[in-house]
Each structure stands twice: as structure tokens, then as C-alpha cells.
Amino acid sequence: MNRTNNNINVLKTSDLDKVELDVSAIDSIDDNLIDSFYSEDYLLPIMVTTLEYIDRRIESGLMLPYFADISIETWQQKIKALDIYITDKIEGRELNLEARGKDYATNILSYPSEMPANIIELMPTLPLGELIICHEVVEREAIKQEKTLAQHISHLLIHGMLHLLGFDHELGQAEQDEMEGFEIEILASLNLPSPYLPNA
């Protein structure tokens, strides 16, 4: 599958000054796979676009469940830091069992930073948390759902970041609709289709 998506935005230098991204992987993951599917060149525009969308929503009154205690000014001024870890299905299964009590590898796990507001105020960056992606599961799902791997990774990154901000589709239908609406609008701004349409 080809990762290339020419529709993804090209970042300006000013965009890069707003975010920090650290991508690492378990030893069993080949470096070429990371370079092909999880490079900063590919992931940073998705991260920046998601955060810019959230900033616009905050200005319209949106509250971030996990960052409700910090001021809008602090949120907007701080550099946002995100860690992404790519794993295999063996470790992915162990992590999902430990985190959620589910004995299988899942596509993405979200670990919010849970930093207190008074600590965030003192830090040069605002840590969003960590996303753990099981590439084998993501690849299998993309094939099954007849999506490109690039589309599925883009959606999961947005989905995971929303979880790190405190949005949770498992709380009820209203929360699910809200989160899916955010995802669809962010993907559209990246010229990517809705993941909730058949064969999208």
C-alpha cells in the first residue's frame, strides 16, 4: 500500500514552532516502516491541523475535558508535545490487556498526560500524552475497510489526539456523535474522506 497522500498540507515554519512530536518503536518494527508510514513529514501536518481545529473550537466555547483547568491563553501559547510509539501485535496485546482488560491487540491506545494545571504553567511545553499504535492491526483494518493505509493512520492519529484531550465516544451517543463530527471535519480539512462512510 502506498502511504503517499499529496493532499496533506505542507507545513510552514511557524506551524513547526507550535508542536513537538517524538516517534519511537519497539525493536521488532522495521525502520523502513517508520520512515514510510510514521515520519514527522507525514504526521506533523495531521497533528497541526487537528490542534488548529481545536483552537478554533475553543474560541467558540469548546471545553477540553482534560485541560479544563488551564486558561485559553496558556493552551494557545504553549508548544504542544505528543509522543507516538509504534508496536507489534504481541506487545500491543499485552498493553491492551494491562490498560483496558481486553486480551487482544487494538489499533491505538491513548495515554493522556494528566498533568496538573499548576505544573503545566511552569513547563515550556504542554504534554498531550502518548499514543501507542499497533501497526499490524492498523494495516489489517485498512485492508478490511478498503481504505488506504494513509487514510486509516490519519484518522487514528486524529482519533487518538481527541482522546488525549478528554473526548470519549464510549460515554454515550452524544459524545460519540461529537467526536465523530470533529474527526470528519478535521479529515475534510486535510482533503481526506469521512471514515464513517462505506468504503471511505
Could you give the topology of this structure?
Elements: H1 13-16, E1 19-25, H2 31-37, H3 40-59, H4 72-77, E2 79-87, H5 89-100, E3 108-112, H6 117-122, E4 125-134, H7 135-144, H8 149-165, H9 173-189
Parallel strand pairs: 1-2, 2-4
Antiparallel strand pairs: 3-4
Helix pairs in contact: 3-8, 7-8, 8-9
Describe the structure in your own words.
Strands 1-2-4-3 form a 4-stranded mixed beta sheet, sandwiched between helices. The longest helix is centred in the first third of the chain and has 20 residues. The chain is α/β, with parallel strands linked by helices and 200 residues long. Helix 7 crosses helix 8. Helices cover 50% and strands 16% of the residues. It has a single domain, classed as 3-Layer(aba) Sandwich (Collagenase (Catalytic Domain)).
Q: Total number of β-strand segments?
A: 4
Class in CATH?
Answer: Alpha Beta
Distance between the termini: 16 Å
Globular, elongated, flat, extended or rod-shaped: what is the shape? globular
Ranges where pLDDT stays below 50 over 5 or more residues in a row are: 1-8
The largest sheet, given as strand count, sense and whether it forms a barrel, is: 4 strands, mixed
Order of strands in the sheet with the most strands?
1-2-4-3
At a glance:
The chain is 50% helix and 16% strand. It is an alpha/beta fold.
Keywords:
4 strands; 4-stranded mixed beta sheet; Collagenase (Catalytic Domain); 50% helix; alpha/beta
